[in-house]
Automatic annotation (TrEMBL):
<comment type="similarity">
    <text>Belongs to the SusD family.</text>
</comment>
<dbReference type="Pfam" id="PF14322">
    <property type="entry name" value="SusD-like_3"/>
</dbReference>
<dbReference type="InterPro" id="IPR011990">
    <property type="entry name" value="TPR-like_helical_dom_sf"/>
</dbReference>
<keyword id="KW-0998">Cell outer membrane</keyword>
<dbReference type="InterPro" id="IPR012944">
    <property type="entry name" value="SusD_RagB_dom"/>
</dbReference>
<feature type="signal peptide">
    <location>
        <begin position="1"/>
        <end position="19"/>
    </location>
</feature>
<protein>
    <submittedName>
        <fullName>RagB/SusD family nutrient uptake outer membrane protein</fullName>
    </submittedName>
</protein>
<keyword id="KW-0732">Signal</keyword>
<dbReference type="InterPro" id="IPR033985">
    <property type="entry name" value="SusD-like_N"/>
</dbReference>
<feature type="domain" description="RagB/SusD">
    <location>
        <begin position="282"/>
        <end position="588"/>
    </location>
</feature>
<keyword id="KW-0472">Membrane</keyword>
<feature type="domain" description="SusD-like N-terminal">
    <location>
        <begin position="40"/>
        <end position="221"/>
    </location>
</feature>
<dbReference type="Pfam" id="PF07980">
    <property type="entry name" value="SusD_RagB"/>
</dbReference>
Amino acid sequence: MKSKFLTINKIILSVAVLALTGCTNLDEKVIDEVLGAEVADPEAALAAAYSQLGEGTFVDHGSVFALQEYSTDEALLPTRGSDWGDGGKWRAMHEFTWDANSDVVKTTWNQLNFGITKSLTAISSANKSTGSNKTLFLAEAKGLLAFYTYTTIDLFGQAPYRDPDNINAPIQIRKADTTIDELIKEVEGLIPNLADIKTQNTHAGRFTKQAAYALLADMYLNRAVLKNKTASSFNFTEQAVNGGGTDMDKVIQYSNLLINNSLFSLESNYFHNFDINNDNSKEMIFSVVQKKFAGSDKGSDNDLAYMSMERIQKPSPDNRGTNASCITPEFYYSWNGNHDDPRFQRSYQYEDGTWFRNDGTDVSVPSTSKVEGTGKPWFHFNRGLQVGQQYGPKILSNGNFDMTSDGRIKVYKLFTEKNTTLAADFTPELNFDNPSEAVFTQAQINRGVRNFKFEFDPGYGNNGTSGMDVPLYRLGTIYMMRAEAYFRSGNITAALADVNILRTSRTNDALKNNAPGIALTTLDANTLFRESGFELYWEMYRRKAMIRFGKFDLAGTAKPASQPYRRIFPIPQATIDASKDFTQNPGY
């Protein structure tokens, strides 16, 4: 029988989508979509393909994020006492013990397959359309198909495809080593028919010419790896697909089209890129639009902020964290000597000038900041990497914050919620009792530096939806890719210049006198890899970077040295059992 993930005419979903109406304006709409059947409304079909970027795929911690980050030195979800055991599926991603029956692997595969099938449906619908936007919609649908396919072949080494205009066409399996060149040609061919961002009512949530440039830079940067991911070394300066220079020349070419575009500029406040109102960030090139879905149960997720906060850390009386994810000591200590880097940490200042220092000196903060929708006080935690003893508000028995007599939010030393005598003291060292297993006892659940890079949206429940758009490509990503391309081409001076533009364009908060980051004087491969982490941590970039820099197979905290086959994830066993079209990846 055919794979259940591509027998799409039998799968019926009720999907919350953004309908592309009129002259490509975006409005909210709910449709019942029969995937794979003829869709009369090409706008709805395309909107469904965009919606799948959310729906957990690129916004939930347990899908693409889990595979791209929990498998690296940047992120780890250990078992903490009675929490986050779940059969070991989360820590397996860091311990490198996943297999073809892994629930996390299967979930990610399924979600990406839905993205592929919804994109194919959108292509089919656009092809049948006679509307004035046919050419644009078709190009966007093909761009989304390329993006979903590229992500799938990067993670799994293969991806399904079927002729979108023939529902009875056989499934084709696109293998990474040959498909990467096909994808590059396909996306390059789409560019004339795509809109420039902010024309034809487009924005960073749409696949525009600029999204295509970013995807092409990414594909060229990783082309050598995709052609033979288990190799001991990679030829990054191979001749490009069209013969016009090398792969790295192409990365530079497409990066230049974005860096030199006046519509984009680096944000001096690095963390604005990850705020709830980041839809107005000048860095956004291609993102998952969540704001339209905030408050619904479709397409939006608060996980990137929620997962790292302790349960006792409460942005509002109705919210809390979950004491789950942290970073590894290896990544934390890579910041040694760089704690003044504006991307490391930023303190919050209230409108009356009060700072939340999170150092034990805070007594109270104003309650004038309110949660939209509830009007309850909003306590703002600091951003970036949080280490050491944590402070914050306390909830009274009546369910409200403890307040001062003049209506301010009291600030307390915090203790973990599940072990009330254990201080919420986030330690860089993890120190598992069994070094090969990421398991903490209830007395150890405070361990691990937490990442508050993404702003917690308190308007929709603990781990509910979020109004923060999730960046897939932003200008900082592009500078980092161009720096690496310069470096691999032997132009160390240009690479260093790009790294320093990122460093010095960011500024600290006023507690640190708004000081900009400090420029480097030299650059080698290890420093470039470190800088990549500083700029792009927790943005689903790290696994690819670790493979390119030869770091992925190395031993680390709760991770043994691993074999190269682990650079590719297995095809879920359920898919292998259901379909003769797929073959299992070597090693599994």
